[in-house]
Amino acid sequence: MSNPSEAEVIELPRPKAPAPGRKTRARRVIAVGGGKGGIGKSLLSANLGIALAKRGAKVVLVDLDLGGANLHTCLGVGQPKVTLSDFIDRRVQNLEDVLIPTPFERLSLVSGAMDGLDAANPRHSQKTKLIRNLRMFDVDYVLLDLGAGTAFNVLDFFLVADTGVVVMLPEPTSIENAYRFIKAAFFRRLQSLAPEDDFAHLVGQALAPRDGQLGRTPWDVVAELRTRDPEKAARLEQALGGFHPWVIVNQARTRADFDVGPTVASAWKKFFGLELGYLGAVNHDDAVWQAVRARRSLLDAFPDSAAASGVLRVAENLIALER
Q1: 145-175 confidence digits (pLDDT tens)
Q2: What phi, psi does 248 have (nearest 5°)?
Q3: Does residue 18 have a pLDDT over 50?
Q4: What is the DSSP letter of 75?
Q5: Residues 84, 112: contact at Cβ < 8 Å?
Q6: Cα separations (Å) of 297 from 102, 157, 255?
Q7: Is the pLDDT at 7 greater than 70, yes or no?
Q8: Could you give phi then psi for residue 75, rounded to 5 degrees?
Q9: Residue 100 bridge partners (DSSP)
């Protein structure tokens, strides 16, 4: 696991209570990530945003694939004139100035940075400012479409969300990449919440196999700490309890493909002792690439397709998390 000194550890913000009668932040921030590109993450993000908006929610989609933005294409929107680059480089002062309309009622878009490496790799202060402003949208959902991989910027955006979603394909390499992404996010969370406690090192040691035996779980570390440092044990317990990502299986063809999500969640529970939720699967469907070729969203071009039905089920499950 990378050492925290390799990049500034961003402090995870704690939501502030709104003043009476005034809404000061988005009701829910959802981040969609994945271990690798080419898994349909942006297509799912775009259509989940549409599905939530069609159910009456006010939604902002944010393309945080900095340097590789294409969410506007998934929505059938032309090349945006203003993007996150303008906000990051201070050509506009307010993130609301970057909002652009989409063809769908109640759904707006913040297009990703498209010019230069600086925009694709914001400094710590820029990232902190961006995260703070993303939470200030007066909407029901802010849906973050993250870049691929486990770079610190990607993990930090994933961790500040109220709900973190990981997309995977029902293929061995994709499952492995998704598992690595979740594990990297978990250790990044430990670094960010309490860097002085060195929880990442303690838990990493516990998870390592010894003498051919499986490693211990993070909860074993909590139990050991309680005997000598109850306050530190409580801090670790809080960090563990707050980590609950969710998975979506994309391009499922067979019954076994639809079972991949629960299987991965069970394996994570076995080796980490932590919960990993399953939001559902989206069918493999020719309608998807046909919609992409037509530069239209799946739900707009093929609303009755099997893939569209899968997206709608996932959206319903996302909504159900708040009940």
Answers
A1: 998 888 888 999 999 999 999 999 999 999 9
A2: -125, 135
A3: no
A4: T
A5: yes
A6: 11, 25, 26
A7: no
A8: -95, -5
A9: 109
Domains and CATH numbers, the chain: 26-320 (3.40.50.300)
Dist. CA 273–CA 282, nearest whole Å: 27
Amino acid code (one letter) for 88:
I
69-78, 271-280, 307-316: which has the minimum mean pLDDT?
69-78
Q: What pLDDT band is residue 5 in, cutting at 50, 70 and 90? A: very low
Determine contact, residues 13/160, Cβ cutoff 8 Å: yes
Residues 6+ apart with CB under 8 A from 254: 170
Alpha helices in the chain (DSSP H): 41-54, 71-74, 84-88, 117-120, 124-134, 152-159, 172-193, 199-207, 218-226, 230-241, 255-258, 260-272, 286-293, 298-301, 306-320
* Beta carbons of 148 and 37 less than 8 angstroms apart: yes
Q: Are 30 and 141 in contact (CB under 8 A)?
A: yes
Output the six-digit token pair for 196.
Answer: 């002085």
